[in-house]
Amino acid sequence: MKFFTFYEPCAHVIIEDFLDDQTNKNFVDLARKLKPYTGPNKTYGPEGNENIIKHSDISNMNIWLGDLNECKDELLVNKSIELTNVLEKRIWETDIREIFYSMNDSLFKMYQLSNYSSFLLSWYEKNDYFKYHADDISSITGNYLFNDNIIEGGDFCLAHIPAAHDKSTKKGGEKFKNSIKRIPFKNNSIIFFPGAAFHGVSEILLGTRFSIQYWASCFTSHDRGVAENTKLGGFGDIARALDSNE
């Protein structure tokens, strides 16, 4: 494992060789088997209202790994649960948490208080992309990258966290343009960054790009109830992941 910490355009961490080779290959196999169940990306409002992201902003296909109700293959569903548990356990192992603490960044420190999580599998093929956007979350987002083929394009693009009263920090503004950082795709790597920062994926020119977005937050009992009433489902058990690493 190798890790790199950065503070521009916002605090973020890149960790390479994140999972062992076999687990990495297992994720590729899972992604390919789940392809028939993927669809347009969905987001959920504060009261669990479902929204479809505009096609002009995104062209890839996705599936919430807790929303596999249409999959009747019990072995595949169980494999998805097993692998997401492995990924989450790795994220919360002591060496990774120490990296978060070393950032000396308030968001990364608060990340340790998370008690709820979810996983979104994304599938990008040639000409797919995701325009700049910010997640509706005030915590850290993890983006695990994996594939088994030669890929061109599909860079992860990261900008700053926009300032509410500075138009130049909005999409298209001068400060926004000057802050963009392109991170080339690298198999079996994971990027942790503030979800409120602008980010996107450049167009795929060749190959297939898989990623799993991991969100962990500190939810109140009301938030938890709303989440459980959406179609997201399948939230990870961070407490279990932490206990298993003690």
Report the strand count: 15
Tell me the name of the CATH class.
Mainly Beta
Strand content: 25-35%
CA gyration radius, whole angstroms? 17 Å
Task: Return the CATH architecture.
Answer: Sandwich
Q: Helix count?
A: 7
Number of domains: 1
Q: Average the pLDDT over all residues and give the rounded result.
A: 82
CATH superfamily: q2cbj1_9rhob like domain
- Derived structural class: alpha+beta
As laid out across the biggest beta sheet, the strand order is 1-2-12-8-15-6-5
Q: Tell me, what's the shape?
A: globular
Please write out the topology:
Blueprint: E1 2-6, E2 12-16, H1 21-34, E3 42-44, E4 50-52, E5 61-64, H2 74-91, H3 94-102, H4 106-110, E6 116-124, E7 130-133, E8 140-146, E9 152-153, E10 156-158, H5 174-179, E11 181-183, E12 189-194, E13 199-201, E14 204-206, E15 209-217, H6 221-229, H7 238-243
